[in-house]
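Notebook entry, cofactor series.
This is the third protein in the set we're modelling with a bound small molecule. For this one the ligand is magnesium ion. I'm keeping the input format identical across the series so the outputs can be compared line by line later. Sequence and SMILES below, as received.
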Amino acid sequence: MQTEPFINESKTLLQPSGPAIIEVRNITKEVKLNREQKLTILNGVNFQVNQGEMVAIVGASGSGKTTMLGLIGGLDTPTTGQVFINGQDISKLKEKQLAQVRNRTIGFVFQFFNLVPTLTALENVMLPIQFDKKPQFKPEERARELLDMVGLSHRLNNRPTQLSGGEQQRVAIARALANQPALLLGDEPTGNLDSHRSQEILELLADLRRRLGLTVCIVTHDSKIASLCDRRVTMKDGVLYEG
Ligand SMILES: Nc1ncnc2c1ncn2[C@@H]1O[C@H](COP(=O)(O)OP(=O)(O)O)[C@@H](O)[C@H]1O
Ligand SMILES: [Mg+2]
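Returned structure with ligand:
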């Protein structure tokens, strides 16, 4: 992986300041709408996040934020360009290898929590550990430890409907951290919470980042939440700008 500075499409100088955990190189994403029409969602995106950073991606609805986060997280692959995670080019990996990167290196948090409704908090957090072919942890022990870390050791046996939005997001964060990822990605992780709970969740992410040496990258509409991150980038019409 190259580490020298380069100029992106928006003519922003990207100067690496440490080891890059995310490096997106000139990616485009096109989708076919029908036989004649295609839509260019991302149009030459360059983006870098260094280890330990906490970065906010902002931008209008429909600008391509979720699509880009999905490419960084290995949920989807770009039409052209490269995505490096920890120096590994994941843009051309097959689904099986991609799934391994997702399970081991990346944790995801979503706006609507996406917990399994029939499982308790403890069982939800145990799930990704049980899915791992070579688990590094004992599922129940690890899940208890993580739920304690997010302040929910008194809610282990509650199902999602028995928890508040803020509590459900804490469970989702614990689940995202189950296999000790280096990178936590959040797509509007506070989008369904009031401002008080949003700030609490952001403080939790900042605290986990510090304690676990995580790198955090979140999409947010909330300028107050974005201002609490180290750095902000803006998605506009499929291109990313610093600031
Ligand atoms: N699979 C797809 N097929 C067609 N259009 C899509 C697809 N995925 C995203 N889009 C469109 O691409 C644009 C960007 O979507 P998205 O990345 O979800 O934006 P954001 O998260 O910033 O709101 C939107 O106009 C959306 O409708
Ligand atoms: Mg979105």
